[in-house]
Automatic annotation (TrEMBL):
<dbReference type="InterPro" id="IPR029058">
    <property type="entry name" value="AB_hydrolase_fold"/>
</dbReference>
<protein>
    <submittedName>
        <fullName>Acetyl esterase/lipase</fullName>
    </submittedName>
</protein>
<dbReference type="Pfam" id="PF01738">
    <property type="entry name" value="DLH"/>
</dbReference>
<dbReference type="GO" id="GO:0016787">
    <property type="term" value="F:hydrolase activity"/>
</dbReference>
<keyword id="KW-0378">Hydrolase</keyword>
<dbReference type="InterPro" id="IPR050300">
    <property type="entry name" value="GDXG_lipolytic_enzyme"/>
</dbReference>
<feature type="domain" description="Dienelactone hydrolase">
    <location>
        <begin position="196"/>
        <end position="291"/>
    </location>
</feature>
<dbReference type="InterPro" id="IPR002925">
    <property type="entry name" value="Dienelactn_hydro"/>
</dbReference>
Length: 320
């Protein structure tokens, strides 16, 4: 199996201001808060020998260099100007032919590369699913860490309110990220024979902002067309559902400070369109639980997700 950098992750809880958050303010860093390890510490960029550059080019107008930091015992990156895709391939003996594009979250300002990327991909590969972590381009942030921390604090200061945008309006502001997702799907399909993947069984799962990108790819991604999707603690506002919308898995904690009180319009939209949807509302878990081990039942989202995949026969070996 192809492996990305290995780091041990820990963490608990979550804090953030509730409500719909627009593209400009996006989402809080998608990771739990712990008093012991919530400080952002700059680190050297980890080796990524298996990362494949996507052909979407450099983010227009970007000047800040890509930077990495640790926080909550995990690994994050920001100022991503060139998109990459990192494969995590299952052992040939267990490969199912199913693949998933994994989109980490981080408010389109950072990417939670470990908790919502590499760790998810490793777990999928262990189930026989080829997983591909998408490091998509991000909105620029200050180069210096203190300035970046101040900018995040200001974004979420008491009384700071971002404009409430409809899902369609938010999607319209994600052109670079949608282009990255489309390029990722195109690459996986182009090399599906080499990676022993069924081109008709390529899905996408996203976390927080990555869930937003997953939904945007589903409704506005053109030829990307995920075969199935996972929305993990992303926005759940109602939206226009394509007639051929894929099966959708949704997981959210009821105490999520962003989306726990905003209703479940997205789920209702899928049901009204008579498209397959499964929804797990966990009592506790906050925002950004990802693959962090926690005492809450939200930790079980991955097992439920793979059971759901099995129900849709996505964990059975694809026919030749």
């Amino acid at each position: 199996m192809i492996r990305a950098p290995r780091v041990t992750a820990t963490g608990r809880g979550a804090r953030a201001r509730p409500g719909w958050i627009g593209i400009a303010a996006a989402l809080l860093l998608a990771a739990p808060v712990s008093a012991q390890n919530d400080k952002m510490v700059p680190i050297a960029a980890p080796a990524q020998p298996d990362a494949i550059a996507l052909d979407t080019g450099k983010l227009p107008g970007a000047t800040a260099p890509e930077a990495w930091h640790s926080q909550y015992g995990s690994v994050f990156t920001r100022n991503v100007t060139l998109a990459t895709l990192t494969p995590f391939l299952p052992d040939a003996a267990t490969a199912t032919g199913t693949a998933v594009i994994v989109a980490p979250g981080g408010g389109f300002r950072t990417l939670s590369m470990q908790n919502e990327g590499w760790d998810v991909a490793r777990a999928l590969a262990a189930k026989g699913v080829a997983a591909f972590v998408l490091k998509y381009r991000l909105n620029p942030t200050p180069v210096a860490m203190p300035a970046f921390e101040r900018s995040m604090a200001e974004m979420f200061a008491p009384g700071a309110r971002a404009p409430r945008l409809s899902p369609d309006a938010m999607i319209a502001g994600l052109a670079p990220q949608i282009a990255d997702a489309r390029a990722a799907f195109a690459l996986v399909r182009r090399r599906s024979g080499e990676w022993h993947i069924d081109p008709a069984r390529i899905g996408m799962v996203g976390f927080s902002a990555g869930a937003m990108l997953t939904m945007a790819t589903t409704v506005a991604g053109g030829d990307a067309k995920p075969a199935f999707i996972g929305n993990i603690y992303g926005p759940l506002a109602a939206m226009t559902v394509p007639a051929d919308a894929p099966p959708m898995f949704v997981a959210l904690a009821a105490d999520d400070p962003f989306f726990g009180t905003g209703g479940f319009g997205l789920v209702e939209s899928w049901r009204a369109a008579k498209r397959p949807v499964e929804f797990h509302l966990f009592e506790q878990g906050g925002h950004g639980f990802g693959m962090y081990p926690k005492p809450t039942t939200s930790t079980g989202w991955f097992d439920e997700f793979t059971r759901w995949m099995a129900m849709h026969e996505l964990l059975k070996p694809a026919r030749p």
